[in-house]
Amino acid sequence: MLQIEQVLQKRYQLKKKLGQNAGRQTWLAQDLHSSPTEPVVVKLLTLNPQIHWDELKLFEREAQILKHLEHPQIPRYRDYFAWDEGTEENLPQFCLVQDYIPGNSLKQLLIRGKYFSEKQVRDYATQLLEILIDLHELSPPVLHRDIKPSNLILGKDRQIYLVDFGSVQDRAKAEGATFTVVGTSGYTPPEQLWGRTVPASDLYALGATLIHLLTGIAPADLPIRQMRIQFSSAVSLSSGFASWLERLTSPAPEQRFDSARRALKALQTGISQTSSQLSTPKVHYWRLAFLISLQLAIVCVGFTIIPQLLHKISG
């Protein structure tokens, strides 16, 4: 049984339990090898008969992918090890150590009744899209698969941090293979529930998260019509931003933005076409009128000049 002040690997001194569920624990600890000592987060997975092997695979995948990620708004990987000293029934535990980000999750702020303005949410969206651009444009792409308010930390520096890569997928390893269906109700796009994940799946989860921040209502508790989240009656937004969110949370991945980079560009420029606009060519009526006028002018000139030319030839 883990206890406060216990030291793991002769290095990480446990200070406070942050969370616990079946077979998993998260602790705030101190890295005794750093000078001065620095706070870290220690995530532990206990390998017991109740744990499915897929959970261990996801845990190991999280550690391996985080080891190669370098982004200022993703907690830095520090260590990964197996440990069984002093555990109940000497069951092996797998430990992942990351930097600690001081701040509050957006879920905690929502629970406290925090109101988020459209301006704030646009800023958070920009920051998160920039993170997703880096993740999705890696080779192979890295898909988070579980973006939601509890996995977003608003740091004391007012920056948004993306945490908990426990559902992360290296897309190259998933091609042509089955994998564990992961995600959270309300934030998970339809295709992910059917076992398929693409970069646009993270965009859907981001859109659902932004809707939660704006309305104060979890997406699963909002009305659904034709598989679309109905949020317009719950919040007053600029038409452009509302259209952008609608496209982000389209139930069909091909109707969303095809990349985080395009989604960011649309957000920054205010361009957000609905799927119907995308399928219908845009008509420039002034240009059409100009071309018609030009054609008429040519015809009129022709009617004037041609008879004169024929008269001269006949004469």
List keywords for this structure.
38% helix; alpha+beta; Phosphorylase Kinase, domain 1; 6-stranded antiparallel β-sheet; 13 strands; 10 helices
Give an account of the 3D structure.
With 315 residues, this protein is α+β, with helices and mostly antiparallel strands. The protein has 3 domains: 7-99, Phosphorylase Kinase, domain 1 (2-Layer Sandwich), CATH 3.30.200.20; 103-278, Transferase(Phosphotransferase) domain 1 (Transferase(Phosphotransferase), domain 1), CATH 1.10.510; 283-315. It is built from 10 helices and 13 strands. The strands form 4 sheets. A 6-stranded antiparallel sheet has the order 1-2-3-4-6-5, covered by helices on one side. The protein has a 3-stranded antiparallel sheet with strand order 7-9-10. α3 packs antiparallel against α6 and α3 runs antiparallel to α8 (260-269). The radius of gyration is 28 Å and the shape is globular.
Chart the SSEs and their pairings.
Elements: E1 7-8, E2 12-21, E3 24-31, E4 38-46, H1 53-67, E5 77-83, E6 93-99, E7 103-105, H2 106-111, H3 118-136, E8 142-143, E9 152-155, E10 160-162, E11 169-170, H4 171-174, H5 190-193, H6 199-215, E12 224-225, E13 228-229, H7 239-248, H8 260-269, H9 275-279, H10 285-314
Helix pairs in contact: 3-6, 3-8
